Amino acid sequence: MKQPTSLNLPDWPYPRWIAHRGAGKLAPENTLAAFRVGAQHGYRMFECDAKLSADGVVFLLHDDTLERTTNGLGLGGACPWAALSQLDAGGWHSRAHAGEPPATLEAVARYCLANRFDLNIEIKPSPGLAHVTGEAVGREALRLWAGASGAPPLLSSFEPEALAGARQSAAVLPRGLLLETLWDGWLDTALGLNCMAVICDHEHWTADAMVSARQAGLRTLAYTVNEVADVERLASWGIDGIITDAVDRFSPAG
Fold first, then answer.
1. φ/ψ of residue 105, rounded to 5
2. Is the pLDDT of residue 167 over 60?
3. Residue 97 is among the residues annotated as catalytic for this protein
4. Among 159, 179, 189, which Cα is nearest to 220's?
5. 45-52 and 58-60: which strand pairing?
6. 54/159 Cα distance (integer angstroms)
7. How far is CA 191 from the centre of its chain?
8. Is 204 a catalytic residue?
9. How far apart are CA 79 and CA 73, in angstroms?
10. Residue 118 to residues 108, 164, 174, Cα–Cα distance (Å)
């Protein structure tokens, strides 16, 4: 299939390969340990999930609740950072990572900046806090990457209201609309939020949808791509970014 061309595609400073939640399933997700494991496998861009603590600290957690990935209980966003910082976010994964603490966005930013790594920050708000979380993540990312050389973080979310909040506080940072499916109006929503990219579940991307996105000036990414056949299909359509758990099976240099 011939690749679509567009005169208005933005410059794309990011690698094609992105390690999901730091290192996929090889390390406790959304921890600095995971970032280190992903880096050991050659990855230079990472995806992570960010939400707000009860006292406004931006920290990494995928779920609304703490039980799956820490030894804590209840809503993560209902706890102050002082309590969250004392949790074990690694023991659930393996004994080797027992005692690994949750990470703040600030700690992750320092690690990425020190190593010249790129970051996709998924804004993962607690229920009812989409706009305020988007604002806070955007503001914090703008502060942490101020004056840094290299690419700024890519801010993404499934919730348009979170992206609107990020645009309000950090309009200069690139944004990506996350999609579980290609729901009606997805392209207009991405354009209305001045997004740079659309990031869709790889099972739902189609060649025609990718052409539409690129012709509208949007970059295209897919998650969570763990099989060779899916990589080949997406690459044939001109995908810009591949988010994977399989950091031990796919070389980011490929």
1. -60, -35
2. yes
3. no
4. 179
5. antiparallel
6. 20
7. 19
8. no
9. 10
10. 11, 22, 13
